[in-house]
Write a structure and sequence with these properties.
Blueprint: E1 16-17, E2 21-29, E3 33-40, E4 46-52, H1 60-75, E5 84-90, E6 93-99, E7 103-105, H2 106-113, H3 118-137, E8 140-141, E9 150-153, E10 175-177, E11 184-187, E12 190-192, H4 210-213, H5 221-236, H6 246-255, H7 272-281, H8 293-306
Antiparallel strand pairs: 1-2, 2-3, 3-4, 4-6, 5-6, 7-9, 8-11, 9-10, 11-12
Helix pairs in contact: 3-5, 3-8, 5-7, 7-8
């Protein structure tokens, strides 16, 4: 069977970029660009190449966003964030070359497996905390943390001598946080993105902190809230607020309390301590949340030790 021709706005397999990358296939597509799997010509290293949509190349805001994302990624280096390798501008297009991760988005894995085993959910959340520690220490707030922006590397096969054998869980690999396209750089009390955003709303409704919904200035505690939503979804099997429209979901973040995680069918599997940790992350008032990603991680480790 032959492959369908590429969409008009996509680069065809074999297309060379800046005489140093060759496109192999499409990995995913968003509102502002396409992510390709590509090979670096000099050594054959596989990379993820994030390319702005051609029809948006003249949009100043999108152009600045790509420049900003590249500048942010240069600040970040850690085992749980995806490393930036290169930034290319050619023929009016912007391209960010990223470390290629052989894995799947947590969003996809949750569709197949949620709710997941509690210890596994805690381990994933701990690794997301580590990514947030890296970002926050560099003065970066993600602002769009969600399962689609969390990659789980494909775990390697266990040694033949491993008791029980069998394939490892697809949720057992290393966790990486990706897509800092909506991130905000924080310098002390000054927050900058390079864009005019007074009163603008950024994020994904199901994972937005109340202060994001209101269009207020945010700090790292909005990422704590988003991680609370992700952890809730992993152990409960549903997001804290599920409504018919995005506006209704955003309103619920401001006005409603989520159902306690232990109120459903998984009551016996979720400890009272873990429930308290999750609900603290979901506090409406940022001052009532875990004060940092490290504090969130410490609380999760304490829950795991008491199990």
């Amino acid at each position: 069977m032959t492959s369908p021709p590429p969409a008009p706005d996509r680069l065809a397999p074999g297309h060379r970029i800046a005489s140093r990358y060759t496109v192999e296939s499409v990995v995913g597509e968003g509102s502002s660009g396409v992510v390709y799997r590509a090979a670096r010509d000099e050594d054959g290293q596989r990379v993820a190449l994030k390319v702005i949509h051609r029809h948006l190349s003249g949009a100043p805001q999108i152009f600045r966003r790509y420049h900003r994302e590249a500048a942010i990624l240069k600040r970040l280096e850690g085992p749980h964030v995806v490393r930036m390798l290169d930034f290319v501008e050619e023929g009016g297009l912007l391209m960010i070359a990223l470390e290629h991760i052989d894995g799947s988005p947590l969003e996809e894995l949750l569709r197949e497996h949620a709710p997941i085993e509690v210890d596994r959910a805690i381990e994933i959340a701990l690794q997301i905390c580590a990514a947030l520690e890296t970002a926050h220490a560099a003065g970066v707030v993600h602002r769009d943390l969600k399962p689609a922006n969390v990659l789980i590397e494909r775990p390697g096969a266990p040694p033949p001598s491993t008791p029980g054998g069998g394939a490892p869980s697809p949720l057992a690999g290393r966790v990486r946080v990706v897509d800092f396209g909506l991130a905000k750089v924080v310098h002390g009390d000054l927050m900058t993105t390079g864009l005019t955003e007074q009163g603008m709303i950024f994020g994904t409704p199901e994972y937005m902190a109340p202060e994001q919904v209101r269009g207020e200035d945010v700090d790292p505690r909005c990422d704590i809230y988003a991680l609370g939503c992700i952890l809730y979804e992993m152990v409960v099997g549903a997001v804290p607020f599920s409504k018919r429209t995005p506006i209704a979901v955003m309103t619920a973040h401001i006005t409603e309390q989520p159902l306690p995680p232990r109120s459903g069918k998984r009551d016996g599997l979720i400890s009272a301590g873990l429930e308290a940790v999750i609900l603290r992350a979901l506090a409406k008032d940022p001052a009532a949340r875990h004060p940092s990603a490290r504090a969130f991680a410490d609380a999760l480790r304490a829950c795991r030790e008491r199990r």
